[in-house]
């Protein structure tokens, strides 16, 4: 199993930036593709971004493409989400999640593939 703890959320003005971190403990971090998801009030949880086990492949939701960047440091057991040019519609609780069955370069967008989840971190973007 793996335990995930997100950090870095907060309140920021529109146009600002935040960097989220997700620290993993437990089984070998490089065994997991890592995803970020978010859930706004009254909405379904949605895919944001994913990075493959090696870090060589990434995938983004259209709504964040060009503004958000996912990365990972397997030596530090941490995955990051750099969020730039934030918009009020980015306001949500952000969750990191681990997919232990993705292939070496696999990046899966459906939350149903992710067996392990963090507790979430709130991101609020004011207009």
Can you summarize this structure?
Helices cover 0% and strands 50% of the residues.
Structural write-up:
By secondary structure, this protein is an all-beta fold. It contains no helices and eleven strands. The strands form two sheets. Strands 2, 4, 5, 6, 9, 10 and 11 form a seven-stranded mixed beta sheet that branches. It has a four-stranded antiparallel beta sheet with strand order 1-3-8-7, with no helix packed on it. A hairpin with a 4-residue loop joins β7 (68-73) and β8 (78-83). The protein is globular and about 40 Å long. It starts with a strand and ends with a strand. The relative contact order is 0.32. The mean pLDDT is 95.
Structural class: mainly beta
Q: What share of the residues does DSSP label as strand, in percent?
A: over 45%
Helix content: under 10%
Total number of helices: 0
Low-confidence stretches: none
Compressed to H and E, one letter per element, the order equals EEEEEEEEEEE
Gyration radius, rounded:
13 Å
Strand count, sense and barrel status of the largest sheet are: 7 strands, mixed
Provide mean pLDDT, rounded: 95
Shape: globular
First and last CA, distance = 40 Å
Q: State the total count of DSSP E strands.
A: 11
Q: Would you spell out the secondary-structure blueprint of this structure?
A:
Blueprint (H helix, E strand, L loop, with lengths): L1 E6 L2 E4 L4 E9 L6 E7 L6 E6 L6 E3 L7 E6 L4 E6 L8 E8 L16 E2 L3 E6 L1
Pick out its properties:
about 130 residues, 4-stranded antiparallel sheet, 11 strands, about 50% strand
């Amino acid at each position: 199993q793996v335990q995930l703890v997100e950090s870095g959320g907060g309140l920021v003005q529109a146009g600002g930036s935040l960097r989220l971190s997700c620290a993993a403990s437990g089984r070998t971090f490089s065994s997991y593709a890592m995803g970020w998801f978010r859930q706004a009030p009254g909405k379904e949880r949605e895919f944001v971004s994913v990075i493959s086990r090696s870090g060589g492949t990434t995938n983004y939701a259209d709504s964040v493409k060009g503004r958000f960047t996912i990365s990972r440091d397997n030596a530090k057991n941490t995955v990051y989400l750099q969020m730039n040019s934030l918009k009020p519609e980015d306001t949500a609780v952000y969750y990191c999640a681990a997919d232990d069955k993705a292939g070496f370069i696999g990046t899966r967008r459906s939350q149903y593939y992710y067996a392990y989840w963090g507790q979430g971190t709130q991101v609020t973007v004011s207009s």
